[in-house]
Amino acid sequence: MIKFENVSKRFGSKTVLDNVSYEVRKGEIFVIVGPSGTGKSVSLKHMVHLLTPDEGRVLVAGEDISHADGVELERMREHFGYLFQGGALLAWLSVADNVALPLREKTSMSEAEIHKKVMETLELVELADDADKMPSEISGGMQKRAGLARAIVTEPPVLFCDEPTSGLDPITAAQMDQL
Predict the structure, then answer these.
(1) Rounded Cα–Cα distance for residues 57 and 54 (Å)
(2) Residue 168 and residue 156: Cα distance in Å, rounded?
(3) What CA–CA distance (Å, rounded) separates 22 from 25?
(4) Span 122-177, pLDDT tens digits
(5) Which run of H or E residues covers position 175?
C-alpha cells in the first residue's frame, strides 16, 4: 500500500531521512517510533506529498506520490485521513464545520447528508454535544478528537496519525488509543 524506496531528506546541512526503505501493507498497523527530530513527522509528510524527497520515491498503491501534482495528487490524497499533531482545526469554523470540511470539499453530499454524517462521527468521538463550539472553546484533548473526527469522516482506507496522544493526560490518551 505504501512503500518508501531509498528516501533521503535534508534540511540545510541536517539529514533527517537517510536512504530509508520500508513497506506498509494493506490492513497493517505501522508505527514509527523515535525521539523528537528523528524524522517521524517528515516521513508522514512524504506519504501525503507535503514534502518531496531529495532522493528516492514514495509509492502509494503502486503509484509514485513523490512527484504527483494537481488533479493526480488530489485523487491520491482522497485515500488518506490525516490527524495532525495539534489537531489543526480552523479557528474560524465550529467543531462541526471543521469535521464537515472534507465532505463539503470532496463529495457531492447534500447539507442534510453532511450534517447526519458529521453528527454520527462526532458521536463516535464523544463530541456531539460540542458541535457548535469553536476550537478555542474546547480543551486540547477535545481538539484532538475533533481532528480525528475530521480525519475519519470520509472513511478513508488509510489513516495517518502524527503523535495522536502527545500532550494529553493519561485518560484522554487511552480514549484516543481506543478510537
Answers:
(1) 9
(2) 25
(3) 10
(4) 998 889 999 999 999 998 888 888 988 999 999 888 888 877 777 777 887 787 77
(5) helix 170-178
